[in-house]
Amino acid sequence: MINENPFFSYVPLLIVLAIIVGLCIFLYKKYPIDSDSLFIFNRDNDSKDSIESESSDKRVALNDSSHNHLATPLSQLNAHDIEEVFHVTGEPVTYDKAQAVCEQLGAKLASYDELLHAYQHGAEWCNYGWSENQTAYYPTQKKTWERIQNADNEEERTMCGVPGLNGGQFDENNRFNVNCFGKKPTKPEADFVHPKLPDTLEQIEAKKPVEVFNDLVIIPYNRKQWSRNGSEPAQV
Predict the structure, then answer these.
(1) Which tens digit of pLDDT belongs to each residue from 86-129?
(2) 3-state class of 165 per DSSP?
(3) How far apart, in whole angstroms, are the C-alpha atoms of residue 192 and residue 231?
(4) Which neighbouring-strand residues pair with 130?
């Protein structure tokens, strides 16, 4: 009987291992691994942490006592200073003259973010105003829009657009008022009068004519008394 060498029983396994090692070496040489990519997850996590930290700082800045609107990703302006958005009416102008109107008042054309920031603080006017990048906008507050919906006709219900910033890009030859950003001029003695809003439902109800009935007669409570006061309950 021939004794088998135990080494030969491992030959198939060794062949398989050699193939695997060879394949790994081939792939490593053909597709080298960038050492920086080994830290991609750490960088992503660090980046996420920094973004969250920045966002939380903004929320604090936007919600402190001097900045009472809710933080949103729409407006990137966080700081308050003496400059603000103001709407200039009077003689409507084309876009090429809008910047000159603001410069005459020591200001510049307002940007979208500056207008959005003003809206978040309650600004509203129902007139288009030229703004940066050949756009024209006007802000409308939700409470005002809700009240306008009480109007009888469609024209009045849509007179101030929808809540938020209304507008977009327009032909440069259109004539609009102007939205400027800078130090607002001193308030004039004569106040600007905003267009009258439709009456509220309560005001509409109060203005309805009240029907008056004539020749009304009120009878006594009974044959002995005018009213119930002092009357003893009768035995049943």
Answers:
(1) 999 888 999 999 999 999 999 999 999 999 999 999 999 989 99
(2) strand
(3) 63
(4) 136, 178
Instruction: Write down how long the chain is.
Output: 236
Contact 88, 102 (CB under 8 A): yes
CA dist 10 and 188 (Å) reads 101
The CA distance from 155 to 164, in Å, is 19
Which pTM does this prediction carry? 0.52
What's the confidence (pLDDT) of residue 10? 72
Tokens 């102007």 locate to 178
Q: What is the pLDDT of residues 47-83, one digit of tens each?
A: 344 333 333 333 333 344 455 555 454 555 555 668 9
**Sign of the CA dihedral running 89, 92, 98, 103:** negative
The CATH number of domain 83-207 is 3.40.50.2300: no
The predicted pLDDT at position 136 comes to: 98
| Burial of 70 from C-beta contacts in 10 A (0-12 / 13-18 / 19+) | exposed
Nearest to 178 by CA among 52, 107, 87: 87
